[in-house]
Each structure stands twice: as C-alpha cells, then as structure tokens.
Specification:
With 469 residues, the protein is an alpha/beta fold. It contains 16 helices and 16 strands. The strands form 2 sheets. An 8-stranded mixed beta sheet has the order 1-10-12-11-13-16-14-15. Helix 4 crosses helix 11 and helix 11 packs across helix 16. The longest helix has 20 residues. The two termini are 32 Å apart.
Length: 469
C-alpha cells in the first residue's frame, strides 16, 4: 500500500511544483525556444545600454552617489550618519517615483572607536598608524605599554606561545588574497588572547598600502579573554618584523577608547517596480547602504547600492514594466556580518518560492567583465544567453559562484544568485580605509555597471518562466 501511495504522491508533486513556481522543471521549454525568447529582448537591451552609457542618464549613478557621499559621509552601523543616509535614500526613492518605497526595521550593532593611537617607544619614537577593529574592547584609560612579539602566522604564534604572554602580538601575515588573509583580522585577537597576549595589532588586509590602515569587523569567542585589537599599516608591520628579526626589542604604547552600546534600530530600505503579470514573484537587486566609519563608503558599497537604484530608474525612464516585481533592497549593517540581510531573510523566507533571483553588487563598480552566478546548470545556461545581450559593450562573461554576504542566505536555500564582476585589481587598495572616497569612482565605469545590472535584472524579471532551481 505504501508503494501505491508513494507513486500517487510522486505523480502529484511535479504538477504542483510547476504550477506554483512556474519553473517548468517537469516539462522544460526547449532551450532553442528560450534562446529565441532572450533574443527578443535585443532592442530593449540596446535601449537600456544607450540610455545608461550615452543618453540622458549618462553619469547619473555617479552624480547621485557623489551628492550622497559628500553630504552624508561614512555610515557605520548604529551611527547618526547611517540614520541620515537611510532618511536621505527613503526620500530620494520617493522623489524618483518608485513604488512601495518603505523601510523594514532591523536591530543592528552599535560600536564606536573613540580616541585611539599607538606609539613605538623603543627602539625609537614612532607614531604607528592604526584603526581599531569593529567590536574591539578598549584599553584601560591609561593605555597599554608592552613589548611586541611579531609573527607571520597563527602557526608561528602557537609555536612561540610562551614568548607571547604579557606582550602585544603584531601579525605580519603576507597578503595572499582577501578570503584567506582576512582570518587574521577576524580571529587575530582571539588567537593572541589564547596565549596570554594583552593586545593584538594586525597588518592591514590590503594588497597595496600608502601607510594606510584598513579596518573591519572582528569576532571574540565567549570562552576567551577579550583584548584590544587594531589594524596597522603594511609599512609599520613590515618595519617591526625587520626590527624583530634583528633581535631588536620593540615596546609600544597603545590607547583604544572603543565602546559597544546596546543594539540600535536601523532599517533596510526597499523600493519596487511592481510586476505586470506575476507581481508576487521577485527579482531582487541590492547593495548595502552602511559602510565603515572612515573615508566616504563610496566604493564599499555606495557604488553597488547606487547602480541597483539606477537599474529601477532606467527601467522606469524607458516606460518598461516587467512581468515580475523588480525589488531594490539597500541593506543595513552588512559590514557587521549581514545583520540587515539576515533579518530580511527571516522575515521573507516563507515566500522563498517566489524569489526568482537575488542579485548583489558589493565588490566595487570598476570596469565590469560580467556576472558571477550561483545556480543549476540550466539556469546558468539561461543567464549566459541573457548576457549575450550585452555584446554591444563587450561584457558577456558568466563566472562560477556569486559573491555577496547579503544574498548568501537565499543562495544557500537554492535561490539563483548573481553578483557583479569587475576589475578588482585596485579594490583592496582602498577597502575599509580613509581612501574609500569618490575619487576612487569613475563615472564611465559606473555607467557600464548600471547597464549590465539593468539588462540582466529586467530580462530575467520579464521572461515568461522563472529560472529553474
């Protein structure tokens, strides 16, 4: 009997899934038909490109971002600047006559760095450039004065554990790539505390430096003492490493006035172009509105947020309305680990079957080369076809795996995801530093990024079937 029931249930399931998701998994449309459907968007894609790159919208995303960044400045989670940024964008999206503009409340971390400095006292006086790391505790009011031990890896620290007790650990880890090297920023304080260090100073996670420290979030562990921690410039880390290798004793005085406050109320900022045929189905484009408290947050992630806004503006300007709803989300508290995005996911995951694709731009808006994509092979093939519409600007590549803290929750559960791929050769020169300003941004490159983002999001939102999962 159970086998009869199983056969009956399996016969029912595909029809139900195909109807609810419109994915056609059971009887997929022939791929040649999909190619022809995508090719039918050639003229619309050309109109989008012309408007973004050559027409009246040329440089608009750059100019909007410049006014925003110059007016608001950096936007740290829990700060008054972030509050001002959210109010600014709420008003701007309404003035742009987008639909369903609203704010969704989020509880976010509130940490402030306060006064901070570091001075080398021996073998000579030298002011060390530092930026305290997010969630760092403060030093005692009088600061910490201690001898330094310099290590190049966690392995070296553990081997020299007896030497580290009571000292300031300086990490001079080589930059391999961000994914591998950032562990020293996120875990450096914990590993130093485990061996009895009183503080940690981490070489900035940067591929190039002009005596510029780069900040970022770090994590404590409940069962490990919390010690003050900051990033220092590549130059200072390498200098202390050379001194140490010669047997020179190094003493540093460190003062960090950081403080963590109770969580603050913030908001994800949302706007839409409501779909004409399947309004309950969503194509989501996004970037994060928060930044670190240095520079202007123009690159990380002002550019990504503003090309996502630009996508809706361009579609509206052309009088287009896709079959599915195109939803813009400007995340809050991404830099603290995707706090706003996680709460958004919890709020909306019951409708996960209606999310067609989630897109995030959070790796700069330099010269684009294509999209990173996460999804099933058939969905990838469809996205590759969509990217052929961008041949007029020679940006057609589809790379393995989308990247984006804010969309990972959805991709983990099977929703297709896309991220903008661009020239990252200089990204980590400015990342999380005072150098992240409008000077980094290029209007022509932002125009191209906006064109890519708009063509892809519009076509996927307007195709008759959702992307297969």
């Amino acid at each position: 009997m159970k086998y009869i029931f199983l056969i009956f249930f399996m016969n029912l399931l595909p029809q139900h899934a195909a109807k609810s998701l419109r994915r056609g998994d059971s009887y997929p449309k022939p791929f040649e038909d999909i190619k022809n459907e995508v090719a039918g968007y050639t003229d619309i894609a050309k109109a989008i490109i012309d408007l973004a790159v050559h027409g009246k919208a040329q440089n608009r995303s750059y100019e909007r971002l410049a006014v925003f960044a110059d007016t608001i400045g950096p936007r740290l989670s829990g700060s008054k600047n972030l509050d001002a940024a959210i109010k600014y964008m709420f008003s701007a999206l309404q003035e742009d006559r987008l639909e369903n503009v609203h704010l969704e409340p989020v509880k976010v971390p509130h940490w402030e760095r306060g006064e901070e400095f570091a001075i080398m006292l021996k073998p000579r006086n030298h002011s060390i450039a530092i930026l305290g790391l997010g969630s760092s505790v403060a030093t005692p009011p009088e600061g910490i004065t201690a001898e330094v031990i310099v290590v190049a890896s966690f392995d070296e620290l553990h081997k020299r554990a007896q030497e580290a007790k009571g000292k300031i650990v300086v990490y001079n880890e080589p930059f391999i790539n961000y994914g591998k090297t950032v562990q020293y920023r996120s875990q450096g304080a914990v590993e130093a505390a485990k061996v009895g260090a009183v503080a940690s100073l981490i070489r900035s996670i940067a591929s190039f430096s002009i005596h510029s420290p780069h900040t970022g979030w770090q994590d404590y562990q409940p069962d490990v003492p919390q010690i003050p921690t900051a990033c220092i410039s590549v130059e200072d880390a390498e200098m202390m490493s050379r001194m140490s290798s010669r047997g020179t004793k190094i003493i540093v005085h460190l003062k960090i006035g950081a403080k963590t406050y109770p969580d603050s109320l913030s908001y994800n900022t949302v706007a839409e172009i409501v779909g004409s045929k399947y309004p309950e189905q969503i194509v989501l484009v996004s970037g994060h509105l928060d930044s670190w408290d240095v520079g202007q947050g123009a690159m990380d992630d002002g550019g990504g947020a503003f090309i996502s806004w630009e996508a809706l503006s361009l579609i509206k300007d052309l009088g287009l309305r896709p079959k599915r709803t195109l939803r813009l989300v400007l995340w809050t508290a991404e830099e603290q680990g995707g706090i706003g995005a996680e709460q958004y996911y919890q709020l909306h995951k019951e409708n996960i079957s209606n999310f067609d694709i989630v897109m995030e731009s959070d790796e700069g808006t330099f010269k684009p080369s294509g999209l990173g994509f996460t999804g099933k092979p058939r969905a990838r093939d469809i996205v590759k076809e969509v990217m052929t519409l961008l041949q007029p600007i020679n940006i057609t590549d589809v790379y393995d795996n989308a990247d984006g803290t804010d969309i990972n929750y959805w991709m983990r559960d099977g929703v297709p995801g896309a991220s903008l791929r661009d020239d990252l050769s200089k990204y980590f020169w400015f990342h999380h530093s005072q150098g992240d300003t409008m000077t980094v941004q290029d209007p022509n490159q932002m125009n191209l990024c906006a064109a890519v983002w708009t063509v892809v999001s519009y076509v996927i939102a307007d195709m008759e079937e959702m992307l297969p999962r």
